[in-house]
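In response to reviewer comment 3 from the previous cycle, which asked for concrete evidence that the modeling workflow produces usable outputs, we include below a single protein chain processed end to end. The sequence was submitted unchanged, and the resulting structure tokens are shown without manual editing.
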Amino acid sequence: MALKKALVTGGAGFIGSHLCEALLARNFKVIAVDDFSTSSKSNILHLLKNKNFKFYRGSILNEKLVSKLISNSDIVYHLAAAVGVKFILDHPINPILTNIEGTRIVLKLADKYRKKVLFASTSEIYGKHVCSPISEDDDRILGSTRVNRWSYSGAKAVDEFLALAYAKEKKLPVVIVRIFNTVGPSQVGRYGMVLPRFIDEALSNKPITVYGDGLQTRSFAYVKDVVRAMIDLSLSPKAEGEIFNIGNDKPISVRELAEKVKQRANSKSKIRFLSYKKAYGKTFSDFEEIGCRVPNLSKIKKFIGYKPEYGTDGIIDNTIVYYLENKRRRK
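The workflow returned the following structure tokens.
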């Protein structure tokens, strides 16, 4: 049987590179494209030796390149997008343009060549939701357009509307996944990602810096759980035209996370608290904190039997091991 061909946009990113690895393990031929704007070649170096993996450096705004890649694929995993609250606050224009125009190009060409699309959306879609498990059809609660934090949510919502429109009007096979906080090996903290920043500080015995009072809660999913669910949904015909939460439904406060990282890293670090104003500096006016965000996973469990295999302790331990091994390799 011929190997299926998958295109992964944003394939050198944190989740994208893990997705490429998982697809190769399932006997796909994988094409990845990335412009390295918020990713790193180091994420895919180990994949470049695989004869079933091919990488193109370029932007999804390059319609000629994207047309060539989609026409040569069976399925498109569209992950290319701006990532991280800090990056979006520091660069307010390009994330909006890339997210909306890039998705328009991908969907238009996927329709032209009649290719299936899995679109990676985000839990940011839900905005300032009440502190209870959020379901896919719940209303969205967003802040003012003057607060740039919400531009990412708005852009991704436009992407979802467009994807669903293609599914309805053009009968394009589309699956939308809303990814909640995802962590694991190769994630970096420079764009505002909390766990890699905590681990880096703990392993260096520097103060572990918690923004705000640390009482805000999140649910952290391991990247291997997330990409497994993405592939399973993409291969399920009954998932077409649907939206799914992917994540972990066991919440933890950011303060508790910092304490767990300190304990499991056997660190001498102190935990310090930093106001959001000091943390975000001149972009503080464009930031708004979310008190709680937890997914309702009933739908994805019903469709593919999804259940996270990794708990918080295992996620932290595996990520610490990766950081220590990576640090040894750099010496």
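The mean pLDDT is 91. We consider this sufficient to address the reviewer's concern, and the full set will be provided in the supplementary archive.
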